[in-house]
Design goal:
Helix content: 25-40%
Order of helices and strands: HEHHEHEHEHEHEEEHHHEEHEEEH
CATH class of the largest domain: Alpha Beta
Strand order of the largest sheet: 2-8-7-6-5-3-4
CATH topology of the largest domain: Aspartate Aminotransferase, domain 2
Bound molecules: pyridoxal-5'-phosphate
Number of helices: 12
Structural class: alpha/beta
Largest sheet: 7 strands, mixed
Number of strands: 13
Radius of gyration: 20 Å
Strand content: 15-25%
Shape: globular
Distance between the termini: 53 Å
Length: 346
Amino acid sequence: MYTLPEKLKNMTPYEPNMENYPIRLDANESFLDLVPKVHNAILQALAKVSLRRYPDPTAKEVCELYGAYYGVDPRYITACNGSDEMLALLVNAFLEKDEKLCVIEPDFSMYRFYAEVTGVEVVAVQKGEDFRIDPDEVVQTLRQTGARMLLFSNPCNPTSLGLNREAVRHIITSTDALVVLDEAYMDFWDQSLLNEAAQYDNLIILRTCSKVMGLAGLRLGFAVANDRLTGIIRTVKSPYNVNALTQAAAAAAFKIPKFIDVAIQLINESRNDLYLNLKQIQPSRGFTLFETCTNFVTVRSNYCARAFEELKEQGILVRNFGSFLRITAGLPEQNLKIVSVLQKTI
Ligand SMILES: *Cc1c(COP(=O)(O)O)cnc(C)c1O
């Protein structure tokens, strides 16, 4: 009889809510539809793709265009099938079986998930009530546990908080561990280390097209690191990881980069409106609205369950973490609806 590996026996699947809600603000997707010009450019590019052939294993054009937009030399960039693919790959490839991954929780739940699949031990630094990261505590934990990789999101999903550049540099330069810095939400803030990634011998930055660009369905992300680390990443990734349709569509979109600038502005405006309106709610016992440098807001409350259910009643799905809610910024009228529900329930 076949017995499962021990590490797989107690795993629970990542189960996004698949129920139908008219307004979905639970996954931090962009609330903007692609502008017609970009949408049409993508459709035209897709029509020309030959599916008989394998895609470009280096996703050269996509990496060049992405690098041009962010001011990063494409030799430091590797494309991937969503940053999720890269997360799984890095945890799998850059850690030996007996080595530890350090995370700072609460953070993106997939970090722990991929560590479990790989069978590496996780050490977690717990954030306090204020959800802030203490860089010195992180450095100390790395030292004490000998963890070989630190993986965290900045700005953080689900706390919506950011750690400034100086603090992140401090962590990177104070440890020999590999730092994997997930900048999935950095388009909404201005503290990226993208332009100096290649200066560090222990830094890999992850970026995604799933958030600000409104291309979550394409499954495209990037790893940015110095030559040595990039060489390894390219060696260990599966050769044809980014499919031809995704490459063609992304290249077409990146040739009209203005749509990204516009999206950043519109989403940040919506996020600010949502934040400022929620700020009007009288702070009560157990209610906290966290600062945000992402496309979502995080609120702590003793009444999350009630608010969550009432939002669902109104056709709005957000993400309930039990002691706090994570709400993606939406269209103005959606934000107003959320504020009025929270006013009554929280
Ligand atoms: C959304 C998100 C990602 C993006 O994942 P993709 O696989 O690129 O869609 C990565 N990290 C964090 C923290 C996220 O919230």
